[in-house]
Amino acid sequence: MTTRVGIVGTGGIAAVHADNLARMDEAEIVAVTDIDADRARAFADAHGGRVDASLEAMLEAGGIDIVHLCSPPSLHIAQGETALAAGVSVLSEKPPALSLAELDRIRRAEEASDGWFATISQHRFGGRANWLRERTRDGSLGETMTAVCNTLWYRPDEYFDAPWRGTWDSEGGGPTMGHGIHQIDTMLSIVGPWREVTAVAARRARPVETEDFSAALVTLESGAVVSIVNSLLSPRETSYLRFDYTHATVELEHLYGYGDDSWRFTAAPTAPESLEGDWDSSATGHGSGHAAQFAQTYAALSAGDRPLPVTSADARDTLELIAAIYASAFDRRPVAKGEIDESSPFYTSMKGSGTPWA
Questions:
Q1: Ramachandran angles phi, psi of 327, nearest 5°
Q2: Is residue 147 within 8 Å of 340, Cβ to Cβ?
Q3: Strand partners of residue 267
Q4: Which candidate in 28, 153, 160, 180 could, as Cys together with 230 as Cys, close a disulfide (CB 3.0–4.6 Å)?
Q5: The domain boundary residue, chosen from 102, 119, 136
Q6: Which of 338, 302, 325, 324 is nearest to 27 (CA)?
Q7: What sequence ranges are listed for the domain Gfo/Idh/MocA-like oxidoreductase N-terminal (predicted)?
Q8: CA dist., res. 297 & res. 123, Å (int)
Q9: Interatomic CA distance for residues 357 and 225, integer angstroms
Q10: What's the rounded mean pLDDT across residues 5-12?
Q11: CB 118 within 8 A of CB 92
């Protein structure tokens, strides 16, 4: 059965969605919408589908099984609620919401809907990431000792000429929220839940409201400590994950997507002899990317009886850690998991009661 897709927002990331959907027999773009009608028409001419005046018009016209939110982050809450109220599933680009309060609204809408809400986190889905997640959980690698999670990117001043960039109200935060979220989410999906974070954040150079740099030490429930750095000030750009276990170090270095060759495995002297052979077998040829996540998303849609990956609960775990990084940095204290509730200013906004540089 072909799943009928609506695309909301037809900018650059929507083209990535469309190109990957075009390779799938089980999905077809049937409608698109954008506030820029000319851009929407050009997108439809290139990728297919009718052009609707709005999301509401798209849903009223019908024939949609899932909408892909490729719109600016500040629009995700209203658009997600609207689609779910119509019983239509949602696949949202990151971040799915600008705060825990907004994401909890989406989760309540999902509970009342026949549709599901999922978030793009394509780096979870490469073959070697799946292998590492499974081996972490089954104990084959021993205990998790420590990990590194760095998003070291570069964005010049001109990048922020777009009025919605670099603002709390439109993006929800700086590189911690808008850029590092993918590496943070992938890291958490592998090493498991966190317990406490101590962080710093700064606006060092860019003409923005938000931070352009942050660093955090995160203690996991297992007791292992993870260091996280998010930067838009790094001319040699890299996305780097490192996992140190009793029996091995596993590293991933890439920029916006990885393949099997982006990984490195170093066995410890204590490692079982079979472990390196097991690692070699994880080279499946399947890297990260939207296609890898779409394959699992549309398989779940076809099954019809299970949530879509990455679930709203998964997304909340990641968003809660990001909120805690901001709270720790701005309040200058450790923040524990579960501490940011409805009484906290960081529940409704990542800037909390205000940034130190405001």
A1: -60, -45
A2: no
A3: 248
A4: 180
A5: 119
A6: 302
A7: 4-112
A8: 14
A9: 29
A10: 97
A11: yes
**262 and 274 belong to one structural domain:** yes
User: What distance lies between CA 301 and its chain's CA centroid?
Assistant: 20
Residue 22 has pLDDT above 90, yes or no: yes
332 vs 186: CA distance, rounded Å = 26
Residue 187: how many CA atoms within 13 Å on its side-chain side?
A: 34
User: Model confidence over 90-104: pLDDT tens digits?
Assistant: 999 999 999 999 999
- Does residue 343 lie in a domain region? no
Residues 175 and 76 in one domain: no
The pLDDT assigned to 177 comes to 97
Place of tokens 């966190």: 194
Question: Is 307 contained in some domain?
Answer: no
Amino acid at 193: P
pLDDT tens sequence across 291-334? 999 999 999 999 987 899 999 999 999 999 999 999 999 999 99
Q: b or e along 54-76 (b: 16 or more beta carbons within 10 Å of the residue's beta carbon)?
A: ebeebbeeeebbbbbbbbbbbbb
- The tens digit of pLDDT for each residue in 180-214 reads 999 999 999 999 999 999 999 999 999 999 999 99
CA distance 236 to 130: 28
- Note whether 114 and 133 are same-domain residues: no
pLDDT at residue 80 greater than cutoff 90: yes
Q: Which residues of 266-297 are buried (b: 16+ CB within 10 A; e: fewer)?
A: eeeeebeeebeeebeebeeebbbbbbbbbbeb
Write the CB contacts of 207 (distance below 8 Å, at least 6 apart in sequence).
157, 160, 166
Tokens of 304: 């019809």
Q: What is the mean pLDDT of the chain?
A: 97
Instruction: Assess whether 150 and 236 both reside in one domain.
Output: yes
Residue 190 tokens read as 């592998």
Q: Which residue has the tokens 């793009």?
A: 120
pLDDT value of position 358: 83
Domain that includes residue 278, residue range: 123-289
Q: Do 195 and 248 touch, CB atoms closer than 8 A?
A: no
